[in-house]
């Protein structure tokens, strides 16, 4: 057997095993369970599973899709996730050979798993866990730091500065769409429930400041507003008519030749907003985990049943889940900003087409944007370089 073929086969088998673990993540992460303990068990009868019950795909087929101990049905999703992971890892090993891309190949496999797990959880719960996305951004930065440029490779994976830029622009692009669309949903009214000490007001302020000051100074202005809130011990409102309206006016001025030019101004705005949104996401994650632990302690003390602080808090209507913002950052950090744009375009087109199909069938489209974004990332991973080059050729670049 050819060595390259052998590596691809090994990658596919490894993917089947990772797919089995992915099913554990899909089940346990939304429920706040430990992903390592207790060992794998049937969710219906709670019986511990033996090694023979855990062979990817084969165990499900041999058991007829039912638990060996209680005969409860096992979802078809389990073998599907395992098969998709095996197929995905094999394709990645074939397109991005380990001998050429080194650590970068493993990074792309990690990205594929993150996308698949996030999509499955989003389809089940309409959420994307921070336990996937925020550590995913950190992992992408690590792979970019340790990965070397592949000499003679058809596609260079992002180095560390490019990975940082991809993460910021990914988060910034999605959060800007969310900010603008949510403003329209509120009919251009101010938010009634701004977050303390950091939230969309600080993101919008960074969006405006980044247009004129660049990404890092723009992010600094947004975080300075956080400091003002903390010092005042309350939300010091920054009117959205000033921040969002000012951003739109700034973009029009940039297109007319003022400032640093339209492209640099938009890049600065998106990156600044992306930086503040990731800081906000990290803060909200830590705060939510603390609230969840407090609720668990109350439940153990036989306190009255209560929802989490996040569920109880009043909120303004939002056009997009914040999990999508962080998932875009994951895609940007692993693939770079050019392939990120390909992923977003494919996601928008796929979402629109599926929406048309749902409308024709007169059924409600309840699928979140995360699975479309993941699909776009896979398309960008496989065909992104060719699509980017074709687009450059159309522009004569």
Automatic annotation (TrEMBL):
EC identifiers of the protein: 3.4.23.-
InterPro entries associated with the record: Prepilin_IV_endopep_pep (IPR000045), Prepilin_pept_A24_N (IPR010627), Prepilin_peptidase/N-MTase (IPR050882)
Q: What is this protein called?
A: Prepilin peptidase
Give the bilayer topology.
Answer: Multi-pass membrane protein
Q: What class of enzyme is it?
A: hydrolase
Q: Which GO terms describe its molecular function?
A: hydrolase activity
Major localization class: membrane
**Per the UniProt record, which residue ranges are transmembrane?**
6-27, 78-96, 102-120, 132-151, 163-185, 205-232, 244-264, 269-286, 340-360, 372-391
